[in-house]
Amino acid sequence: MNAFHPYVAHQVQVEALKHGYTVLTLNNNASAAVEKEGVQRFLDQHVDAIIFCAAVDSANVRLAARTGIPIVQIEREVAGIGSFALVDAEVGMTEAVQHLHELGHERIAFIGGSLDTHKIEKAEDESVEALRLQCFENAMAAVGLTVPKGFTLLGPYYAENSERQTGHTLMRTLLSKRRPPTAVIAGADLLAAGALQAITEAGLGVPDDISVIGYDDTMAEVLNPPLSSIAQPIIELSQAAVTLAMEAIANSGVITQTHVFPTRLVHRASTAVPRVR
């Protein structure tokens, strides 16, 4: 459902084909059990390397690593093993907050994703989701703004047993406040899409009533209005992951490296000067 993952999978395949490699893909469906079965199938087929984007359970990463084949993790470190192509959210998030501040926004909210972190080896406050939120709070402080109570909301990217997407639900909560935000930054375009629906259903417009910025820059361009978004470096991540995998293959899986790439804000039509109410 999150367009970031198939975008990366496509770019990995494009890059691998340039070097004569065939890519087998598995959608883990955010399930540790499905992921484990997929890893085992890859091992049964004697693949040369496995790239995770992103792993659900660190145990599955280590299951693959125990065979000695190279492991590369994209975007997030779920298990502390193998090589990594990671993302620094700070630059893009800082640009987003500065942009909204320069437009005149002061009541800026953040809606982000949350994951089950007990299957991840990093501490909870070091997760990708926690770091995005921390970057938002740091950027707000840097421009002299405080985050009002209740203006940072997190929820699962995939809302099971719900008729509404998480971004829609979180945005409804923000709109119900006595003084709702004039701008919202979402921790994924998927969440921003739900927020746009909630805003429209409330009889409000983007950006006339509320400015919205997404994160990923995947589906942002085709939303209505076209969404400003903090772009993840998908092509660079994919190219690095394939390069890391090939280098490890050439060195019998011994090499472990980490490459970190910055984000950036892509401007479109979803932000404007706040309306005076």
Give the terminus-to-terminus CA distance: 36 Å
**Name of the CATH architecture of the largest domain:** 3-Layer(aba) Sandwich
SS field, number of helical segments: 8
Count of domains: 2
Radius of gyration: 20 Å
**Number of strand elements:** 10
SSE pattern:
HHEHEEHEHEHEHEEHEE
Low-confidence segments: none
**What shape does the CA trace take?**
elongated
Question: What topology emerges from the helices and strands here?
Answer:
Blueprint: H1 4-18, H2 32-44, E1 50-52, H3 58-65, E2 71-75, E3 83-88, H4 90-103, E4 108-114, H5 128-142, E5 152-156, H6 166-175, E6 183-186, H7 189-201, E7 211-216, E8 228-231, H8 234-250, E9 258-262, E10 264-266
Parallel strand pairs: 1-2, 2-3, 3-9, 4-5, 4-6, 6-7, 7-8
Antiparallel strand pairs: 8-10
Note down, in words, how this protein is organized:
This protein has 277 residues and is of the alpha/beta class. The chain has 2 domains: 115 residues, Rossmann fold (3-Layer(aba) Sandwich), CATH 3.40.50; 143 residues, Rossmann fold, CATH 3.40.50.2300. It has 8 helices and 10 strands. A 6-stranded mixed beta sheet has the order 5-4-6-7-8-10, with helices on both faces. The chain has a 4-stranded parallel beta sheet with strand order 1-2-3-9, with helices on both faces. Helix 4 runs parallel beside helix 5 and helix 6 packs across helix 7. The longest helix has 17 residues. The two termini are 36 Å apart. The model has no long low-confidence stretch (mean pLDDT 94).
